Amino acid sequence: MSPRVRVGSHDAGGASALAPVVARLRERWPTRVWAHPLSAAAIPDPDRIVESMDADEALEGLLAEGPRVLLTGTSWGGATIDKMALGAARKAGVPSLGLLDSWIHYRERFTARTDGEGALLNLPDRLLVMDAEAEREMVALGFPGSHLSAVGLTRLASLPRQAGQPGQP
């Protein structure tokens, strides 16, 4: 069965943010993960572990599977798996979500240069950020506010809740 959700993960930080989301997605929909070895340990049962992926390979994979959405981490530097998957999704017409995992290096994750200078590239259709502060900082740095949504820290979803906390008896 073709996946409804394709996930692209490159680094360990992004993978730790993606892991609880992937677990929830897998409860409801066929979800497949492309993972770099740096992130493979953090996301249970990646479907494919690869050191690198070029744009053609990513596009071919998306076209063959036909997912309804792509979810990625937001690694910075070079031709990361998440960047290759985002470019392929754009070409294939697959909507994309990026999940930010840290309050640093906002521009560096989305520019061709690792110093954050230059045009914003590889932006997903919607970028999920940790909080309103990150959202404000990113808008001040030139990110389109209409593409940002504050969702909280996904890593906290995997922590056990204590009795008496919201959602607990």
Walk me through what this model shows.
By secondary structure, the protein is α/β, with parallel strands linked by helices. 31% of the residues lie in helices and 16% in strands. Strands 3-2-1-4-5-6-7 form a seven-stranded parallel sheet, sandwiched between helices. Helix 3 crosses helix 4 (81-92). The radius of gyration is 16 Å and the shape is globular.
Summarize the entry for a quick read:
The chain is an alpha/beta fold and 169 residues long. The protein is built from 5 helices and 7 strands. Strands 3-2-1-4-5-6-7 form a 7-stranded parallel sheet, sandwiched between helices.
The 3D shape can be described as globular
Share of β-strand residues: 15-25%
Q: Helix segment count?
A: 5
Radius of gyration of CA atoms, rounded to a whole number = 16 Å
- State the helicity in percent bands: 25-40%
Quickly list its features.
7-stranded parallel sheet, globular, alpha/beta, 5 helices, 169 residues, 7 strands
Protein topology:
Blueprint lengths: L4 E5 L2 H17 L2 E5 L1 H4 L7 E2 L5 H11 L3 E4 L8 H12 L3 E4 L26 E4 L2 H9 L7 E3 L19
Parallel strand pairs: 1-2, 1-4, 2-3, 4-5, 5-6, 6-7
